[in-house]
Specification:
Order of helices and strands: EHEEHEHEHEHEHEHEEEHEEHHHEE
Bound molecules: S-adenosylmethionine
Radius of gyration: 23 Å
CATH architecture of one domain: 3-Layer(aba) Sandwich
Distance between the termini: 27 Å
Shape: globular
CATH superfamily of one domain: Vaccinia Virus protein VP39
Number of helices: 11
Strand order of the largest sheet: 6-5-4-7-8-10-9
Largest sheet: 7 strands, mixed
Mean pLDDT: 80
CATH class of one domain: Alpha Beta
Strand content: 15-25%
Amino acid sequence: MRLQITMVKAATERVYTRRIGALHKAAPGLQVQNAIRWGAPDCKVSSQGPRERDQGQGPISAGETPIPWAEVLMRVEMTQPAQFLAAGDGWPVLSLFSGAGGFDLGFRSAGFLPGLAVDFEPAAVETYKKNHPGTAVDLLDLSKTKPTDLVKRWKAVMGSKGPRGIIGGPPCQAFSISNVHQRTGDPRYKLLPRYAGIIEAFASELGLDFFVFENVPGLIQVRHQRRYKLFKARCDAAGFRVSEKVVDAGNFGIPQHRRRLIIVGINKKRFPDLKLEVPEGDEEPLTTRAALTGMPEPTYARKGLKANEVPFHPNHVAMVPRSSKFTNGQLAPGDRRGRSFRVLEWDSPSYTVAYGHREVHIHPDRHRRLSVYEAMVLQGFPEWYELKGTLSQQIQLVSDALPPPLGQGIAQTISVALCYKPESANGTGGRQERVANQVG
Ligand SMILES: C[S@@+](CC[C@H](N)C(=O)[O-])C[C@H]1O[C@@H](n2cnc3c(N)ncnc32)[C@H](O)[C@@H]1O
């Protein structure tokens, strides 16, 4: 995958050159493909690319006037061997609304380690404990937890060293376009200012490099604009430069189209010349065929079914296909009329995995709905991952999850942009050190 990092205000050529050097030092396995100085007279720092400017669209011609260094923007594009970026040994993060832990798994794959995770659903907490045994998980209602109490809880678990970042997205149903019952007094709206309050508390008491907030693109709808603007204004006032983008998780190589709003805040004081560009991903979404071919038939759900009675994978359980539509030939591949009977196509990526009211999408062979495990595969979970709780709870957990490959792409961009560096070469144990302060 290609990483894109934008840095602003490389005030002098020396700063620029040192930054590129620091990136190489922080990530020796990476190859800087293009380092572009917009408006600068040439691009001699580029290690491989030609003399380029303005997103690689050709050399600066003789007649063009270079702009002053103080206004020069940098963009660095990198291709990376994944194993280097996975070798970090645990830059700590706080995980809010951790759910099934999909977002967290992505961060872990990029070298971060959630020190404390919080959710108020018992099935989410149980699932998290099962898959992330090294992390403390609290069953807490964040709407009722004071931000300062969360700081105390972090200190009790992790000591006085703060998290590098905060990650997580509050429940999106209140902002979802597909939720036709949006209410002005929905208590979930309060979770947005609460999230801002937690960022403020951690930034002022323990220090914080970054936060990543994810949600549905519906949050930028006109009707939520006031809330959203207030949220961003508070983050800005708390000292964070905010970048945002709606991205499709399919571009991170999963077999699904899933648009998500990603907001990244970077501490302005600690990283004065960095404006992070939210990565868009550059992979082709896989097809349903590539993801599900060869999968054995699942077990049908029944009362009292135990996990050890389910072969292949404990979540490979599907609802019993009771409707006559599964046998009378009415269902056509790609049919997406209505919400209840959406049929997947073998040669396309899945529609967004979001199954309200257990309206799980229908298998491309049209004889049943998908199993929970098949939905997990469409979300990019690895095969060892396991969801806990009842079938309905598992359907909710998989629907809510942020695809781990998207989380990983965001996390990698952050760790490289902030020049995080594992202290030990073999990536085991030890403190992480940040080299960003040595540059710029
Ligand atoms: C969008 S999901 C998170 C998905 C998760 N990031 C993942 O990748 O798997 C939102 C989560 O917020 C939790 N939640 C909702 N309201 C909450 C509250 N007041 N306090 C704590 N957790 C809450 C829900 O239980 C749900 O698991």
